[in-house]
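Narrative progress, year one. The postdoctoral researcher (J.K.) led the effort to move from monomer predictions toward full complexes, under supervision of the PI. The following entry was the first complex the group processed end to end, covering 790 residues in total.
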Amino acid sequence: MVELTLFVIFGLAAVFGAVSMVWARNPVYSALGLMLTMLSIAVFYVSNGGYFVAVVQVIIYAGAVMTLFLFVIMLIGVDKSEERTERLPVQRPLALGLLALFAAGVLWAGRLVWVTGAPAGVVPVDGSIEAIGTELFRKWVLPFEVTALLLIIAAAGAVALALFREDGGDE
Amino acid sequence: MNMNLLAVAPEVIVVVAVVALLMIDVQWRPGPVWWAIAAAMGIAGATAAVALQWVDYRGADAASFFSDMIAIDGFGAFAGMVIFPLAGLGLMAAWPLIRSQGGRGAEFVVLVLIAATGAHLMAAAANLIMLFVGLEVFSISLYVLAGFTRERVDADEAALKYFLLGAVASAIFLYGIALVYASTGTTSIGGIATYLRSTILLRPGVLMAGMAMLLVGLAFKVSAAPFHMWAPDVYQGAPGGVTGFLAAGAKVAGFAAMARVLAVALGGRIDDWAPAVAVLAAVSIVLGTLLALVQSDLKRMLAYSSVAHAGFILTALVAGANGIPDMWFYVATYAVQVLAAFTVASVVSGATQGRAPLSDYTGLASRSPWLAGMLGLLMLAMAGIPLTAGFVGKAAVFRSAIDADYLWLVIVGVVSAVAGLFFYLRVIVLMYMQAADEESGHIPVPGGARVVLVAVGVLTVLIGVVPWPLLTWLRDALPL
Amino acid sequence: MSLSAYLPIAIMALLASGFAAISLGLSRLIAPHNPTPEKLDPYECGIVPLQEPVQRFPVKFYLVAMLFVIFDVEIVFLFAWAVRFTQLGWYGIGAVGIFTLLLIETLVYVWKRGALDWNVARRSRRRPAVVEPLTEKAA
């Protein structure tokens, strides 16, 4: 019962956040809408026992990535929002149509595993932080180390693109 | 956990080279010579490591390590033997560009090295998660490289387009992994294959959706139509020096990943995905050829021709695992050709420039006979003229498709290849049969580009005349 | 269900949102509302604003945000390792050590490149080789 209540409340919040992110004219509101969605999803993770993923969701996505988004919005300039005049006569309805088609496809594909209350074929995974720690460092140690490479690229790419600039930026 | 240092030796060597390059560069600033030394050592070491993998683990000796995360097999080793030298050639071709970038040339070299590592990880991954991490390492490096020169707006546009569409493709691929995991309960490539072979899925809807998304995600990366929209703009906008590596690397890594995912993990469901791959191949071949016909920019034309080539390579994959050697033959020979062709474009039209209008190439034969000869050879090879590697590659992929009973696809391919002759030969006609503008003089060829062109030219002709050693060799380049 | 452990968080979330809603709502209800153009102007030390507030941040902020994300990710991984510190033993230290060394390398690199240097005058001196003006060597 508690879980259902949580699901309804935060499910609505997640959908509201996602829709307001797409709809908002001001990019800052978009970012806040996205943050609402991310936090709501974190609640789902907790209610499904994915504690570590929930923590990651809050720390990385709602925290760091949102900060990055806001910085980028500020870099581009919030004043840009009003200047937008787009002429996309076909694309919007087309996108909505494709979205509906896609949703129908996913629902159709998943009709076997539609919510029945019965556990799916997969053994439930222990989502506690301790279990993740063991799994991450025993089985998944190689992908884990490779993510360090991703972080090096992020730093080198950011330095190459943002630091070495003669114009602007450096006042 | 079974650790084997040889399994990750290429990656470790490249990372050590990268760390050394960066640390010494920020401390003492030894300049481009040091970058070249570090990159050369990293690439030579990594190539030696994959060669060792090839010697010890090809064919039946393949095995996977690190909890079934990475495989050492002929497939991954051969991919490494293509990718790392390709990165070396790419750096040589890009050297004028790197020199022109001042201090941040070090970052350029680092990104190329890490991209090569990511590409090799994609090819050697034995787990979809590992493959995805490799894919991201590879793709993100390429996004930055595509927008490396910040002086031109069209380069920024190219990089942004590449990044956005590439990120969407990665997301689709990741969704596909999730759906495949949902229906099979594992992300291990071998595990998925075993599960699918031993289990009959009564309602395989989720698996189908997952397979479709994996295919679409990778089709984006290899620029197969109809997911090719980004390729012309990106290849045209990216700085000339790096475009060759962008195009060649994406093909090698993308098709390696595609072959492993489709032919190995989903090999048991070949009847489900092979028709989709055949349609993708046919659409790519026809659309790429038709659109290449009307281009007036060499880089744009090469981009559309790379769409067509993606289609030809997909033609080999309809045969499943049996087509992998032929796929490799085509991918390897095409990758070096496209790298060299873009190198010529960067020499003639400028290493930092995006555009390479075909008018730059009118009468090239009288201004710079050597460059014109090389570009002509590459055009003939890409068109698939006999006695070049391109011809053998096309013959090989068509044979694969015929063996798999896809005669209609072969007919489409042959007709398009003949039509494609037109735009490849048009470049040659332009270079040899039209007079140059009087003000344009001789074009100096940088040393690195010279090495790349000679190496690729020799390889293309040599493999075209005696393809059998490579073809025999590739029978061992099979995945685990 | 272990969700009950999150009851305090739920209560706190309710309290926090309730506090925000009540204070904003009350001030909207109680406070007199008669705006004048002067009142709506941004407050700038009491003088009349001469220009629109600066809309764009310098691009170096992006770099800082990016670095923040990088090291935030590292912290999360370290967290997963820390809770299993004793069980993983030296093996875990080795695994985390490689990862952390690579990140320290990144930190040193970024630091030495001057990305963390906020003092503009010093940075221009310490900055690595200035980007040379582009010369088309090939063409």
